[in-house]
Amino acid sequence: MQQISDPQARGTGSPVLKARTVECMGTVISLTLAADAVVQGQPTSDELTAATAVVERLFRGLDETFSLYLTDSEASMLARGELALRDASAQMRERYAEAHEWRLRTDGAFTPERPDGVLDLSGLIKGHAIREAGTSLLALGRRDWCLNAGGDVLVSGSPRPGSAEPWYAGIVDPADRRTLVTGYPLGGNTRHSALATSGSAERGEHIWRVGGGPGFVQVSVAAADIVTADILATAIVSGGAPTLDLAADTWDVAILAVHQDGTLLATPGFRQA
Amino acid sequence: MKIRGAVAAALASAGILLAGWQAGTQVHGISTVTSSTTATGTKGSTGTGSPGTGSTGTGTTGSVGSSGTGSSGTSNSSASGTYTGTAVQTRFGAVQVQITVSNGKITEVTPLQLTDTDGRSIQISNRAAPLLRTKVLAAQSANVQTVSGATVTSRAYLTSLQAAIDAANL
After folding, report:
1. How much is the pLDDT for B117?
2. What residues in A contact B141, CB-CB < 8 Å?
3. CA A36 – CA A25 distance, rounded (Å)
4. CATH number of B29-167
5. What is the mean pLDDT of residues A54-69?
6. Which of helix, strand or coil describes residue B89?
7. HSE (CB half, 13 Å, CA atoms) of A247?
8. What gap in Å lies between CA B80 and CA B72, rounded to an integer?
9. A172, B153: Cβ pair inside 8 Å?
10. Which one of A152, A184, B44, B156 is CB 3.0 to 4.6 Å from A196, fit for a cystine?
11. Nearest CB to B150 within list A15, A159, A174
12. Residue B50 near residue B56, CB atoms below 8 Å
């Protein structure tokens, strides 16, 4: 029988992790599992392969329906006016309803419509896909994992299964993508499991600004769930300081915003203890 | 002493802000504080220090003013330093803040005294405040298990920190 890891050694050194990546939705999705096979009682590589396949299937299915880059997707048909929203699929109407709810909650800073009036649910779909993938992983019995889709992170459990140790996520410095501004603990014994970052660094001005002023070049939001984190990060980049205050007052979130000149604005959750 | 007046006003504003956060919807309490601090800001402050020479000065203002040390800037009016506000009493307890000013801009707001009427320190609201980079938790890519950043395209992923972390765990 294999020896169970030395209790003295637990909590020290780096956790043993195994990662897989898949490419979808124009980005790369990374799934990381704790490789502590003895504690989990299952061979990690098989588990990781199976779990990654589930995540990939889910992302691809949603992309086929919601992508505006695929000309024959349901979203593209809606955009071209070939399909009316009332005739759209149930999942399309559900996401549209959810996006509109967020528009109301954020005073319009988040919107599911482009300035030209075309329905664009891409601000919600990635977060939705991560949320669904997380639900699937939990349904598979996976408790300790970290899912990162294009810089938006959802975790469950701990990098050391059985412990209360949180995952630790770094936040990229928008001025130098090889360095981190700070880190934030997720999962484990913390109250936030999701961290999303929005900005104009990667895809140009892909977020439509509704407010004036210089605004933020990058906004990170930590929340209990990934959709809240993702939507609010997008909304704050779009709506600026008023939306940041609204988000901080309304939701149990931690926010780190980076100004154009590199200075930081942060809620107490990001302040060094 | 325009700089010091501005700093005092900013400081008082920060105090009001904190008082506001703490008081929540106590509009009456806030407006009372506002009027007195506005007066302070417009009357300016008394103090010693020599603007124009870049020397360190200390200044105090009235009952709701500020005291602090910092080097006054030269004629281009850029103030730098750390300033501590006077404790402001609210019906929920005392509130006092310290601000760090760099080249005339507030770079950090630190709550110094936030206690309720029983003297226990309390959690202020979740409002965001300027924060120096040295006051956030340091993180290095070697110590994180994942990286959050603005939407990374498939191509940008190849040179990202996340890719390096994934590669190490393959």
Report:
1. 57
2. 170, 179-180
3. 31
4. 3.90.1010
5. 96
6. strand
7. 36
8. 7
9. no
10. A152
11. A174
12. no
CATH of A2-271, one of 2.40.50.870, 3.65.10.10, 3.10.520.10, 1.25.40.10: 3.10.520.10
Comparing alpha-carbon positions, the chain A residue that sits nearest to B138 is A182
Cβ partners under 8 Å of residue A257, min gap 6: A216, A218, A219, A220, A236, A244, A264, A265, A266, B128
Give the nearest partner residue to A17 out of B125, B148, B169, using CB atoms: B169
Amino acid sitting at position B134: T
A256–B150 C-beta distance less than 8 A? no
Give residues with Cβ within 8 angstroms of A2, minimum separation 6.
A38
Token pair of A24, please? 């979808």
Domain boundaries along the sequence of chain B: 29-167
Query: According to DSSP H, which parts of chain A are helical?
Result: 37-40, 44-66, 74-79, 90-105, 122-139, 226-239, 241-250
Is B131 in the A-facing interface, judged by CB distances under 8 Å?
Answer: yes
For the entire predicted model, the pTM comes to: 0.74
Mean pLDDT of chain B: 63
Burial B61-95 (b: 16+ CB within 10 A, else e): bbebbbbbebebbeeeeebbbebbbbbbebebbbb
For the stretch B61-105, pLDDT in tens is 333 444 444 444 444 557 788 888 887 776 666 777 788 888 888
Please give the Cα distance from B170 to B159 (Å, whole number): 16
Contact: A171, B165; criterion CB under 8 Å? no
Residues of B in contact with A169 (CB under 8 A): 144-148
| Residues with Cβ within 8 Å of residue A70, at least 6 apart in sequence | A63, A64, A76
Of all residues in chain B, the one with the smallest CA distance to A251 is B126
Q: Where are the domains of chain A?
A: 2-271
Q: What is the ipTM of this complex?
A: 0.88
Residue whose entry in the numeric block shows the structure tokens 């294999």: A2
